[in-house]
Amino acid sequence: MRMISVRQLQKNYGPTIAVDGLSFDVAKGEVVGFLGPNGAGKTTTIRVLTCFHVASGGSAIVGGFDVRTQPLEVRRQIGYLPENVPLYPDLRVEEYLWYRAALKGVPHRNRRSAVGRAMEKAGVVEVRRKLVGQVSRGYRQRTGIADALVADPPILILDEPTSGLDPNQRLRIKELVRELAQEHTILFSSHILAEVQDVSSRILLIHRGRLRADGAPKELVASNARRRLCLQAHANPALLLSSVGALPGLQIVEVLDLGLGIASLVATIDKDADPRDAVASVLLQQQVLVRELRIEQPSLEEYFFAVTEGADRSEEIAARQGEEAL
User: Fold this and answer.
1) What is the pLDDT of residues 177-222, one digit of tens each?
2) Could you say which of 3.30.300.10, 3.30.420.60, 3.30.70.1710, 1.20.58.460 is the CATH number of the domain covering 227-297?
3) What residue spans of the chain are helical by DSSP H?
4) Which of 44, 56, 177, 318 could be bridged to 12 by S-S, CB 3.0 to 4.6 A?
5) Dihedral of the alpha carbons of 232, 237, 239, 241, in degrees to the nearest 10
6) What's the CATH architecture for 2-222?
7) What per-residue confidence (pLDDT) applies to 199?
């Protein structure tokens, strides 16, 4: 069942195109990480999905309702945590959530249980009587999440939920997202790629307003980024380079002298290749003692760079070469 369905979404700000023909689906029960560099169009897309901005073209269906023609019904389907949570600092946490429950149309007879459930899920019960302005930033983020949960929506849209938090607070929010995923469909954006990789079942990566990648994190990285062969041995760099560098399927990245008669070599290899046996055999013939020989999987950060900035550089080089040819 599709909880979010976006087709050829377009959003312009005058001559600037923020979102350019974006299409994707989010199924019920998915946790989808929404990635992209600054200015890629993530927040603009989220604001269209949450009915804060009107699209310039295309369509978006959220919870079965059209964001253009049925905004009130869409808002009943979602709990939204913006990047900068708009809280009232002079209200107590519980008072604020009661107020938000009333605004969201939670019946008066159900508000006590709705607020209690939201506070428990978000982990703010222990600060319920404190003023919002006197709790830590981590608890303010949690209060914002409790606000998103108070009407018990089927869809949660979280924009940078760990922004500005320390490592311990980020860990707690990450654990909270995992728990919420058992009952809600979640779309969230973050600049912290390790968090996205840990929490998401799927990633949408956009760049310059267009979808550049869609899939499970491990599958995307494995299919599009090159792995590395990492070698340390009791040898000088020249011997390592002459022995290993001649093997097929290796592209040498660096050879370093680590001192004490030890050198290291790093080479990129094809995604399905495993040259470790060949490397070990060559070094054995040279009577070189190997300290370390492993294959290092690429990271999501490297994949992100290749799809965004790396792609930009390739386009710039191609354009420059075209101009020179003219």
Assistant:
1) 888 888 999 999 887 787 888 889 899 999 999 999 999 888 887 7
2) 3.30.70.1710
3) 42-49, 71-77, 93-103, 108-122, 137-149, 167-180, 193-199, 217-224, 237-244, 276-285, 300-307, 309-325
4) 56
5) 90
6) 3-Layer(aba) Sandwich (3.40)
7) 87
